[in-house]
Amino acid sequence: MAGFKGMGGGGMGGNMSQMLKQAQKMQEDMAKVQEELLTKTVDASSGGGMVQVVVSGKMELVELKIKPEAVDPEDVEMLEDLIKAALNEGLRKAQEMASQEMGKLTGGLKIPGLF
Question: Which pLDDT band, with edges at 50, 70 and 90, does 110 fall under?
């Protein structure tokens, strides 16, 4: 039994404590990045700039601009498609931005359910 006492009781505890501190720091850093993402935005457009959107890091539409020449009462479907295309591109860019910011913290490690 005396052999077990000196076989890592102190060393293992130190490593575990250090790992917990690192995990806590990473969690704090991730919360900070998530907070910062709320203020960051991305721009996207469709139809050669006929429809422009600004999407936040929170994945919300912040701004929508439609050029008057994109509005054709005879072809509402085209305008709907332009809006969908611009918004989807904006959401894709916002997701990519969030993934890149989180990737800086995790070193590219993919964490399920986190962006």
Answer: low
What is the separation of C-alpha 62 from the centre of its chain, rounded to a whole number of angstroms? 16
pTM equals 0.67
Q: Are 41 and 55 in contact (CB under 8 A)?
A: yes
Q: What is the 3-state composition of the chain as percent helix, strand, coil, each rounded to the nearest 5?
A: 60, 15, 25
C-alpha pair distances (Å), 57 with each of 8, 101, 104: 46, 10, 16
* Cα 69 to Cα 66: distance, rounded to the nearest angstrom: 8
CB-CB contact of 80 with 71 (8 Å): no
pLDDT in tens, 71-87: 999 999 999 999 999 99
